[in-house]
Every structure is written in C-alpha cells, then in structure tokens.
Give the backbone structure.
Amino acid sequence: MQIDKESLDKFRLKLRTKVRYHVGSFCPDEEDLVQETLVRFLRFAEENRIRNPANLGAFLNGVCNNVIMEYRRRLWREEPYEPELREGVQAADREAELVEDREAIDTGLCQLSDRDQLILRAFYLEDRTRAEICNALGVTDTQFRVALFRAKERFRKIYRQSLKRRAATSH
Amino acid sequence: MLFHDEALLREEIIAKYLRRQLDATSTEEFESHYLTCDECFEELRLSQVLLEGLAQPRIDRRYSGGVAVLQFTRSAQLTRRSAEFTVLSQSILEQKDTKVLIDLSRVSRIDSAGLGLLMSCYSHAVRNQGGLKLLNPNSAIRELLHVTRIDAVLETYTDEQEAVQSFRQS
C-alpha cells in the first residue's frame, strides 16, 4: 500500500494534535512520538499488513495509542535524556508559537460582537446543555444553531485574515 | 460517521472532546475519524483555537485618581464555574490595590458565587482601609444587587468620574 507525501504531511499534522491532546502541549518528546507512529505505520503499509484500508484512521489511531502507551511506560521506568536542555528549547519554541497564535486569536475574538462571544463561550467553554443555553439566551434551538455557526464562521474569517497579515508582515 | 454529516452534533462532540468530557469509546471513534477526515480536523483545530482564546479572560487595570479601575476586555460572567471568577479574585485579592472600582458593563450574569466573590473583595478592601464600588451593572445585575440588599453595602455608579470622586469623599 502506497502513502503519498501529501497524505503523510496531513497525518503528521493530525497526529501532532492527537499527541498533544494526550501527553500535553509542552511534552518535549511530542515530535518523537509523531515520528515513531509514522515510521511504524509506513512499515505496516509497505508490508501490506493493513488489512482494511477503509479503516485507515482507526489503524493509525491504534498505532499512535500504542506509541503513547509505551512512552508512558518508559517514563515510569527511566529519566528522559538531558531533560532540562530539551524541555527548555522546545518549550520556548512552543511558547513563541503560542504567542503568535494568541495575538491572532485575540484579534479574532475582539472583533466579534458581545452576543457572538456569549454564544461561543456558552457552547464551547461552559458545561451547559443546549437546552440550558437556549433558555438563557431566550432563543429556539434552530435560532441557536444558526447563531452558533455564524459566530464560528465570523471568527474563522477574522482569524485567518489576521494570520495571513502576520505572516505577510513577518516576511 | 453520523457526526460527520450532522454539523451541530459534530460541534457538540468537538466541544466535549476539547473539554475532555467524551468517554473513551467516543474519543477513540472521533480520533480515528479525524485522522483521515480533513473537514472534521479543520473544525477541530478552529474550535481548539477558539476555546484557547475564550478560556483566557482578560481584565484591564488602569488608575484614575488613585483608584484602580478594573474592566473585563470581553463579555464575561461571574458564575461559580466561569474563568472570569478566578481571574477577578486574583486581580483583587492578590493585589495591593485597596481602592477598587469594578466596571461591570461587559458582565452579563452573576450568580450567588459571584455575589459572594464581590463581597469577599469588598471585605478585603475595607480591611485594608480601602473600598470597593461597582460601575455600570446591567439592569438584571442591578436588580439582583437590590433584591439581595448588597447595594446597601456596595455602592453602584453609572459615571466613572463620579465613582472615582466618591472614594475621596469617603
């Protein structure tokens, strides 16, 4: 089974998100875990050991889960190699990346109306049911649905423009 | 995948995933799906970014006539589980300022925990020979302050200059 470069790059990006979710944003071994998952996955693909290509995502997810589990076991057994040096450099890189992101996020959020922010906050951040939110906002389920997607779409546009502007000014 | 075709269901799954409220089986199912679905992954990434921004409430602190004026930079709620609750308590109880004016113009809701926090902040300020007053609460909050008789202790103003001057007089 052949995996092209474009698919591989997409897998890498998505695996990074999954690994961060499970081991934390500042894990110094994040890239190693992603790389190890991809190496194993490609080996399986080359040897045609992926029996059901329709479930490629589940297979890749399983490989990544094993890599994360083995990593956790290893952490229990041994100290990481030069932890201070590696953590320091990678944490600084990640922090710089986050600051850039945060500026774009702030720009996106600041340009949303109070009502849009309220809707997004109630849905994503607060532990409330949809019925509770609709009740608090005094809207029907359909009105809430429309308002939520419009608010997210507005944020998407502003956030992307802000990222583009930042990328253009930094070059 | 049912959630792939149903946008609102997908958003609910994403929101629960990001708040870590999805059970192990659903997490497994969602991750297996987004690893091969660009559309769902894009929605997840954007929601993740959105959540990161929303989870960081900011309070502006500026000084006017020796009084610290605190204002939320975004719409906020002072409720038991809200992030603003923590940020406001840190901004008052862990700072040296004792003359504090809280601008509530962007606060849409306060619950009993929020009222309790305002009273704790007031006690903290008074214990340190200062005071705490409120500026521009909305009508619902004003009503709540009145019903609970907290407005007899916490003075409320609609004009900032007037509020700042009242600190000099008291």
